[in-house]
Amino acid sequence: MSSRLQLHLSARDLKNIAGLMGVSDPFAVVTVRGDSENNKPRVVGQTDVVFNNLNPSWSQVIFLDGYRFGVPFYFEVGVFDFDASLTNKTELELSRMDVHAQSVLTSAATSQQRGEKFPHRVMGTALFEVGQILGSRGNIASKSLQSGGVLTVHMERCQNAQSGRLHLHLEGHKIKPLSATSRSANTFYEMFRKVDRPTGAVWESVYRSNVVKHSLSPNWNDVNLDLDATCNGDLDRAIKIVVWDHKRSGKHKFMGECETTVHGLAAAGDNDGNSNLVEEFGFELMRDSKTVGRLHVKSALLSSETMAEGAPDNLMPEANGKANHINGLGVASTDGASVSTRRPEFVDYLSGGCQISLAVAIDFTASNGDPREPGTPHYFHPPQSKEWNDYEKAIFAVGSILAKYDSDQRMPVWGFGAKYNGVVRHCFQCGQEVEVEGVQGIMDAYRGVFRTPLTMSYPTKLTEVIETAASYARHEQETAQEESKLSYTILLILTSGNVENVKETKDCLISASDDPLSVVIVGIGDTDFTSMEFLDEHDPTTEGGRDITKFVRFGDYRSFNALTEAVLDEIPQQLVDYYYSKNIMPGQLEDFNEHDVQVAEADNNDRTSKFLG
Known about the structure:
By secondary structure, this protein is an alpha+beta fold. The chain has 15 helices and 31 strands.
């Protein structure tokens, strides 16, 4: 299953490239490169232009479609200084437009070419991978730009696959000027959505209105807002509306603000055009804890984009013949309370701070043959050949994906099937540490086993490894719960042998299914893996427990991306099934301080010239 994601972009400390007499007007373009950073880019969105501002927070939300766990998903953000001469408007005229009208003109100007070159001066580009952002605290990532400054990306999953719209018309009423000598202002409003954190809230800009000149009772243009971009489908999500006095310099003056929700806007607009109710159906604008005017909702109509296609299944008729408002997680009841019926998705748990822990178990049985012989699964190629055996390839392919979601990068590595001092060990520690660091640590621990006095032996027995992984998963979950978080473990078993004691192994897997654990078995070589395939064929309705096992043959896949997608494609459903069956919902977004987020180094300068291909 793929997920739709949305990006909110901001930057700080950008380098001014407009010269001594001006300030840059930054905007961002987003391209998708898919499963490789070197794929041909495809433009998927462009932000609004923030004029005369080197610390922009763009209002235009960008959407990414097609993210799947286990498949790399690269996108790139380019920041440019907008050239207003490509339009028939001045910078001042453009800055006074609402963000949607402005985007029509600026997008058209962006598509123009000058001598087959992009017409706007580049301020920097930054390449990101979705998995790394979803695995980070708060789903946020920052990266330096080549010419200076830092670009920040905040990511959310789109909660509602069935989008809706809010048709909104606002006006101000007797807004108090900023000084006793002022009798007017060039007013506009900006809408923000709230991102809750344990230590406070972050407000993200999602819309900016047109400017009404010389008015303290402005009647702004009506607007048709996408609910996904405005509140991510949650009609009870806090919305803040801030009124500003527009300044040519970009340093706009704060005039007042109010807080509400999309439901609140819709209720305030439901006055049937009765002007006598204008005072009742509005919001007080506050400045310095004092009322400085009112914000009136002339109209606020919620609609679903699917209504024209047929019966509006997600609208319930009220007794008065009107329709209830659409809620992204269900349907609002007639008393205004929203009822959530949506089952969480995998990305919801990642966003809520669920950590993915990786454990690796490697087969050292005699079924692998003599590791000194070329062509055997454990044979190590000479360093100068720069070749890996299939065990190394599988560790790198799967480990590189899962490591992005593991915040501490600490992973246990176990071996099975080797004989030490005449005793066959069905689960032993690989390497000097109980947990190694990162994919390179797994590689080093694996290779180091062959420097120990082992004898490769029989049989291929997995039960002890599975029981150890289940115990490890419980421990990780208990540790995470101390910080009100979740932890889910994936056991990666790499084996070239066909498991013996199949029934005992299956019973062990069923028992382990009550723990936060999934088991992925990768078959190395061309052995008969019939019993492994039997372990993968689990029916919870007749056998009990939960389906936690996936088996794939390494040789069936010609690329790392194809392998990891096949190996991990069932993990999201298994994770959700586990927590949802136990009534454990995703946690809140993790706390973070944007300025404490580690800023990645800028990409190579060559990427700027290749941004659009």
